[in-house]
Amino acid sequence: MHPMMKRGLRRAWRDSRYVQFGATSAHAVVVGPVDMATGSLLSLIDGTRGLPRLREEARVMGLPDGQVDTLLARLASAGLVDGTTGGGPDADAPRKRIGDALDRLRPDLASLSVVHPEPGAAMARLAGRGALRVQVRGAGRVGAAIAATLSASGVGRVDVLDSGDAAPWDVAPCGLAPEAVGERRDTAGARLVRRWAAVGPPRGPYRPPPGGPPRDEPSLSLVVVAPRDGLAVYAPDPAVSEQWIGTGTPHLYAGVLEATGVVGPLVLPGGSACAGCLLGARTDRDPAWPRMLAQWRSGRDATCAGPCDLGLATAVAGLAAAHALAFLDGDLPASTGARWEVSLPLLEWRSERLRGHPDCSCGAVGQTGEKRATGAGATARRNDRVSPARGTAVWELEGRNV
Fold it and tell me: Fewest 10 Å CB contacts: which of 239, 351, 360, 375?
């Protein structure tokens, strides 16, 4: 193992004894007290030296035997150490990639290393993305951008489903190109995904060869519902999601309706509120809602471009893609069992916690879908009372002036 300090966290000395890793309160950690020799040793933990070399450097500095191992163990407990050979067998393939593939993902890798503190965890999760399959339903301004972002973030397979031909108003800097106008939306979406694919051979939606035997499809890890008509996100039809509820397939809604962006809910079948729960709750508050909804669904011209500001659509797509990636990486984002909305012109995000409805058969009644707090197995002592900044963790590294 060649340990290195997390490169995604900026380093600054608070004074002569305490050093802070990270500028933002969400991930910043202060360690100390640290003497001059140990501070110099910290600068050598950069991934270019193995443990034997680091132990030799420590002896030259006058540090006692065992100091390197103790220091690394406590720094790792604080989530500050990564390893150039960590992550297990699943991480070997992405680590061995050369050229643009891995270089393009280095910012993503650095981000994952900040969020997931265990050494090698970032590479393992990046490798895990490559084995996943996501389906994006919609190739408009929001859906196409989500599909491209997921593909460029290392998701191994992204299928884009939509009908009809691409219209001029479907074009967006992060989505379909102007050349796609007049082309079938699903075809244009598949080409977009292949263009931005970061890992593995470019793959679009699988189509078995004529007359050939069907191939086993990998199961869907997530369905992102991002139709061009934002009404299908703001007031999703429970009938559409029945198949996902039945198969236990997680699905996330995202879209824009009448200059209002929506991200969520992320539905965990049986664990968080679904489209049926949304409809039931809204009907309880407004008995006329189903009647109006039926008129809205049947009376709109499908060829009409709805109010969907490009900046708002891009923001919604970015947030939805980030929530999807957090889920695919093993976390439950804030859209789980909740819906986030933002409207022009003020653009102030607001969230609404959603509950399972007693009349819905999805089984989410009594479930919150909220993430439980989990520890990182740290052995160092955390002391929030002496935190110099709100939300910043302070780790007292016990031992000889460490």
Answer: 375
Residue 106 half-sphere exposure toward CB, CA atoms < 13 A: 9
Mean pLDDT across the chain: 84
Determine, yes or no, domain membership for 96.
Answer: yes
In this structure, are residues 174 and 193 in contact, taking their beta carbons and an 8 Å threshold? no
Please report, in angstroms and rounded to a whole number, the separation of the first and last CA atoms in the chain.
Answer: 22
Q: Indicate whether 364 belongs to any domain.
A: no
Could you tell me the pTM of the whole model? 0.84
**Is-cis flag, bond preceding 236, omega within 30?**
no
Examine residue 363 and state whether it is found in any structural domain, yes or no: no
Residues near 79 by beta carbon (within 8 Å), at least 6 away in sequence: 6, 29, 117, 118, 376, 378
Query: Which of residues 156 and 372 earns the better pLDDT score?
Result: 156
Q: Do residues 79 and 149 both lie within one domain?
A: no
Q: What gap in Å lies between CA 157 and CA 153, rounded to an integer? A: 11
From the list 147, 198, 151, 144, the residue with the least C-alpha distance to 171 is: 144
